């Protein structure tokens, strides 16, 4: 038991009778969202008997397990000679560029040549940051000039990755959520451009979210899912907040699964999402 389940246990282990409002508030504070919090409290109340802190933890864990997806296999490179393409989206500051580097490192360590495309051409710092990661981790980074069309950077990177026989290509994009129309245009142009060289690309569009932003992360997921269909999300900064409740809320409300978790600033602080581990160690 860790994080939020432990604090639930500690909070209710010394009370003779559970205060339902208090329990609901604790569940909402863990970013599960009001609807899920309410249904959990109802389930416990319906037991119609004295509830212990153990019951609270066990039923919460079961409730969350039902609402999280089963473990998905890691993304395998396609059987064709073209790379598996990730389109990574998210607002600035959530850890998107770091996550692209970590994902590349994770794939490369499993023996697959991986390329990075610096398509956040809006922020020069993002390209520089990705280049630094590339140097440090020995991963080729394809860049374009400042303010270049992000889709042309993705096109060139894709072409080069195909030519060099790379197995994965990860495209880091800009996250300007304040203008959904522009974002939608930009992301659909990148999709069309990638599909020119491989109709199956991008194979996986993943949204990067900062776990410590709670219900804001859910809002971002809703906005991005409207702008560009998402296949899943990556929750970063799981080391900081100790809260991962928002993963359950996003999966329940939007039907998109968590795929990876970021647990620190170093390249190795990255893991495939696994339900049992998440419920045991992270929530
Ligand atoms: P971007 O603007 O979304 O591309 O965000 P960056 O990749 O520049 O990351 C923003 C900050 O978050 C940096 O200081 C990263 O080191 C930090 N960061 C990214 N992922 C994690 C994580 O999983 N845990 C922690 N603690 N920090 C992270």
Automatic annotation (TrEMBL):
Record's subcellular location: Cell membrane
Molecular function terms, GO-annotated: GTP binding; GTPase activity; signal recognition particle binding
The UniProt record lists the keyword ATP-binding: no
Any one GO BP annotation for this protein: SRP-dependent cotranslational protein targeting to membrane
Membrane topology: Peripheral membrane protein
Reaction(s) catalysed (UniProt annotation): GTP + H2O = GDP + phosphate + H(+)
One Pfam entry name: SRP54
Keywords: Cell membrane, Cytoplasm, GTP-binding, Hydrolase, Membrane, Nucleotide-binding, Receptor
NCBIfam families: ftsY
Protein name: Fused signal recognition particle receptor
């Amino acid at each position: 038991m860790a994080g939020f389940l432990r604090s639930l246990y500690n909070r209710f282990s010394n009370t003779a009778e559970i205060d339902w409002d208090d329990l609901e508030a604790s569940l909402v504070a863990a970013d599960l969202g009001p609807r899920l919090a309410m249904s959990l409290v109802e389930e416990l109340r319906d037991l119609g008997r004295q509830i212990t802190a153990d019951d609270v933890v066990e039923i919460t864990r079961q409730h969350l397990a039902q609402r999280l997806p089963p473990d998905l296999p890691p993304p395998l490179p396609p059987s064709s000679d073209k790379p598996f393409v990730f389109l990574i989206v998210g607002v600035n500051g959530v850890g998107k560029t770091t996550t692209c580097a970590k994902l590349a490192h994770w794939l490369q360590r499993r023996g697959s040549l991986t390329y990075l495309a610096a398509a956040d051409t809006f922020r020069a710092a993002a390209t520089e940051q990705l280049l630094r990661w590339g140097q440090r981790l020995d991963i080729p980074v394809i860049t374009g000039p400042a303010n270049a069309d992000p889709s042309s950077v993705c096109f060139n990177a894709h072409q080069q990755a195909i030519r060099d026989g790379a197995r994965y290509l990860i495209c880091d994009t800009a996250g300007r959520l304040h203008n959904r129309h522009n974002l939608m245009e930009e992301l659909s142009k990148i999709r069309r451009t990638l599909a020119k060289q491989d109709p199956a690309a991008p194979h996986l569009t993943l949204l990067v979210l900062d776990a410590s932003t709670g219900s804001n992360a859910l809002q971002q997921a809703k906005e991005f899912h409207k702008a560009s269909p998402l296949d899943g999300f990556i929750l970063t900064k799981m080391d900081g907040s100790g809260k991962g409740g928002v993963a359950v809320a996003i999966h329940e409300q939007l039907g998109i699964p968590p795929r990876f978790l970021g647990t620190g600033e170093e390249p190795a602080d990255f893991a495939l999402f696994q339900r049992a581990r998440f419920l045991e160690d992270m929530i």
